[in-house]
Specification:
single chain, 217 residues, alpha/beta, five-stranded parallel sheet, two-stranded antiparallel sheet, 9 helices
């Protein structure tokens, strides 16, 4: 089952003067590469939703306890410092094969991630620009945090192959994980900038550099 899309219209954006770049894309399209480039080469503050989600499901956290209560030993890993951790591979097999379970997990984790963004953005209130790297930016309805949205894009075949190579998944599992997110053509319609990552490694850098130099419209 694919993720349910919103109507293809731009959602409300951050209305104030701080430039907030929402960096998103499909799974395995290359968001992290662009995010690392912005942090390392341009010294920008990059806030990472994936990192916040990992922290939310850290051993012993309230969210981890809720997951363990729901799925039990099927997703339990070895204890760390007397706090049971999660077998993320086992959890992924559950949620990417059952849309209802994926929705339950997202409803648990997304509010925690939103709270972390709110706290970090408050801390960086005088910093501009700030990059918000959020894979599920549209799906989680977080575009109101951003003044503009950059989408990292590649072909569906590249996306699937990169996901298989990166996570050692079968073609079927890769396709299921891609289908759990909005289609890329829908995201393209909603983005302010599409970063083409279908070419050679790093070929997108000039377009990113140019976009940074441009004044926010």
């Amino acid at each position: 089952m694919t993720a349910e899309p919103l109507s293809p219209v731009l959602q409300p954006r951050w209305p104030k003067s701080q430039r907030r770049i929402g960096l998103t894309g499909g799974i395995a399209t290359g968001k992290s590469s662009v995010g690392h480039y912005l942090a390392e080469q341009h010294a920008l503050a990059v806030l990472d939703a994936d990192l916040y989600a990992l922290e939310a499901l850290a051993p012993g956290s309230a969210a981890t306890k809720a997951v363990l209560q729901r799925y039990g030993k099927a997703v339990a890993a070895e204890s760390q410092n007397n706090a049971t951790s999660l077998d993320r591979s086992a959890l992924g097999q559950i949620v990417f094969n059952d849309a209802a379970e994926r929705h339950w997990l997202e409803q648990l984790v997304h509010p925690i991630v939103r709270q972390r963004f709110d706290a970090e953005l408050a801390r960086l209130a005088e910093t501009t620009p700030v990059v918000l790297m959020i894979p599920l930016l549209f799906e989680a309805k977080l575009t109101d945090l951003c003044s503009e949205v950059w989408l990292v894009d590649c072909s569906s075949a590249q996306q699937c192959q990169r996901l298989m190579d990166r996570d050692e998944l079968s073609p079927q599992d890769s396709e299921r994980r891609i289908a759990a997110q909005w289609p890329m053509n829908q995201k393209r319609d909603l983005a302010d900038l599409v970063i083409d990552n279908s070419g050679s490694p790093g070929s997108w850098k000039p377009s990113v550099d140019q976009a940074l130099r441009q004044e926010q419209q």
